[in-house]
Description:
Elements: E1 4-7, E2 10-12, E3 18-24, E4 34-39, E5 46-51, E6 57-59, E7 67-72, E8 77-82, E9 91-97, E10 108-112
Parallel strand pairs: 2-10
Antiparallel strand pairs: 1-3, 3-8, 4-5, 4-9, 5-6, 7-8, 9-10
Amino acid sequence: QVQLVESGGGLVQPGGSLTVSCAASLTLFAAYGMDWYRQPPGKQRELVASITSGGRTNYADSVKGRFSISRDNAKKMVYLQMNSLKPEDTAVYYCNRAGITSGWGQGTQVTVSS
């Protein structure tokens, strides 16, 4: 069974930066694309960023130019670097295999507030 463990969330002021991490217990991790999602309070989960097995990235319009997804295949880790954070980025952040919307981890809370 795949385990996804997100970490690194916290409270940050508007305009600040934060990096969240995802540890994936995936055999052949390097062969999978990976996604970052977020779920703001009272709203549906939404796709934020994706990275293919080859390292190609894609971003939601709302975070383009501010967020950066990366991966370390040796460590089976995926990262989401978030810059110029806004209050509307407040959410629980989750990672998952690309295109998979089940088997979620516990997520990590990111709160952007002064």
